[in-house]
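F.,

This is the one I mentioned.
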C-alpha cells in the first residue's frame, strides 16, 4: 500500500467523510483528496502526525515502515516528539518542510522564526541537556542562535572560517571581522533598547487607558451636574439625593 492508500484506509475506519477528516487535520478537502490519491507524495510531517493521531495509528504505519522500522528512526521520532512538547510549553513550534527533511525551524507564537537548526544539532543539544538533568525551550534554542537569527532578519550574517579566528559579520556586499566581545556588546544594547521600547509602549497604553477612564468620569460628572441644575425647579426628594450619593460613593466611579 502507498502512503495515500493508508491515509484513505485510516480515514474510512474512523467513519469520517473527507470534509470532516480534512478539518480534523487542518487541510482542505482538495488537499486530502490529493493525499489519498498520491497526487501529493511529499506530505509534511505535521500532517502525517495529525493524520496518525486522528486515525489512531502511528506515523510509522502511515509511512509504510510497519514492524521493520529502523529503531534509530523510532528513537529520533521520540526525541522530536519530546522537543515539540518542551517547545509547546512556551508556545513555540517546530517546523520542517517535509517528514524526511533534516532542517528544522523554531517559531514563536506569532510565527516568527527564532532559530534554524539541523536535526543532528537539535538531537545533540537534547542529549547534552538531558545528561545535565534540565531541558527547556530556552536552552534548546540558545540565545546565540536567536541573536544571530535576529541579525539575519536585519540583513547581517555571521560566519566563521576557522574556530581560532574571529567571526565575520557580512553586511550587503561587505564583510568585516568582529570579536565575540563586540557581538556580546551589540546583543546587550539591542536587548536594552528593545526592553526600553516595550516599556515605553506599555506606559503609553496605560496612559491612554487612564485618560479614557478619566474622560468618562468627567463626562458622567458633567451629566450629574446638569441633572442637578435641572432639578432646581422641582422638588428634590430624599430618595433622589440618596441615589446621587450612592453613585458618587461607588468605588468604580
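My design for it:
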Amino acid at each position: 500500500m502507498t502512503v495515500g492508500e493508508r491515509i484513505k484506509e485510516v480515514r474510512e475506519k474512523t467513519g469520517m467523510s473527507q470534509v470532516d477528516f480534512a478539518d480534523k487535520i487542518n487541510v482542505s478537502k482538495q488537499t486530502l483528496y490529493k493525499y489519498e490519491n498520491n497526487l501529493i507524495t511529499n506530505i509534511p510531517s505535521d500532517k502525517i502526525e495529525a493524520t496518525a493521531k486522528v486515525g489512531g495509528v502511528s506515523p510509522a504505519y502511515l509511512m509504510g515502515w510497519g514492524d521493520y522500522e529502523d529503531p534509530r528512526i523510532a528513537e529520533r521520532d521520540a526525541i522530536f516528539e519530546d522537543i515539540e512538547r518542551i517547545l509547546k510549553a512556551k508556545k513555540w513550534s517546530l517546523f520542517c518542510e517535509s517528514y524526511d527533511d533534516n532542517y528544522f525551524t523554531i517559531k514563536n507564537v506569532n510565527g516568527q522564526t527564532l532559530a534554524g537548526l539541523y536535526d543532528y544539532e537539535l538531537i545533540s543539544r537534547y542529549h547534552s541537556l538531558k545528561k545535565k538533568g534540565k531541558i527547556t525551550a530556552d536552552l534548546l534554542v540558545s540565545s546565540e542562535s536567536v541573536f544571530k537569527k535576529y541579525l539575519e532578519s536585519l540583513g547581517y550574517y555571521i560566519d566563521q572560517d576557522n574556530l581560532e579566528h574571529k567571526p565575520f559579520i557580512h553586511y550587503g556586499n561587505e564583510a568585516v571581522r568582529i570579536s565575540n566581545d563586540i557581538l556580546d556588546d551589540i546583543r546587550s544594547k539591542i536587548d536594552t533598547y528593545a526592553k526600553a521600547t516595550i516599556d515605553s509602549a506599555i506606559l503609553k497604553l496605560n496612559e491612554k487607558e487612564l485618560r479614557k477612564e478619566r474622560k468618562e468620569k468627567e463626562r458622567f460628572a458633567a451629566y450629574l451636574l446638569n441633572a442637578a441644575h435641572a432639578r432646581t425647579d422641582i422638588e428634590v426628594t430624599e430618595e433622589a439625593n440618596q441615589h446621587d450619593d450612592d453613585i458618587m460613593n461607588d468605588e468604580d466611579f
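The radius of gyration is 30 Å.

Talk soon.
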